[in-house]
Amino acid sequence: MLKILICVVGIIATVACLPTVNDQGVEEPVDKPGYCHIKDVYIKEGEQGPGPIGQCRRYKCISVADRRMSFVTCPGWVPREGCHKSEHDLTKQYPACCPKEICPDEITNKD
Q1: 26, 79, 96, 108: which sits with the fewest CB atoms below 10 Å from its CB?
Q2: Cβ atoms of 71 and 79 closer than 8 Å
């Protein structure tokens, strides 16, 4: 009997941790107390971290109760003369998604 009870509790705990799917078949986020969430990213209240791929932002969870978050994007900058900025790489998370400076070899290799 104890083995059956442990097995049932284990199954219930596993199901409770799975994301729910709404009527339209869209996966809804799992509730994680003490965490803000945006899409599939969870950030603990008072902390910060990269947002979901495709947004190129760093988020800070300000208040779970008030559902308040702030974010920053890539800093603005001007490339050196003869160089240019790459586009955002939205396949990566912040800050790897931010534009990079692209220069010809003769500028890059100058000392």
Answers
A1: 26
A2: no
SS3 letters across 21-71: ECCCCCEECCCCCCEEEECCEEEECCCEEECCCCCCCEEEEEECCCCEEEE
Chain centroid, CA 19 distance in Å: 17
Q: Kindly report the pTM of this predicted structure.
A: 0.64
Question: Over the Cα atoms of the chain, what is R_g?
Answer: 22
Question: Which of 97, 98, 47 has its CA nearest to residue 69?
Answer: 47
Phi-psi region of 105 (alpha: psi -120 to 50; beta: other; left: phi over 0): alpha
**Do the beta carbons of residue 56 and residue 75 sit within 8 Å?**
no
| Residue position matching structure tokens 């978050």 | 69
CA distance 61 to 44: 6
Residues 58 and 49: their CA atoms lie apart, in Å, by 5
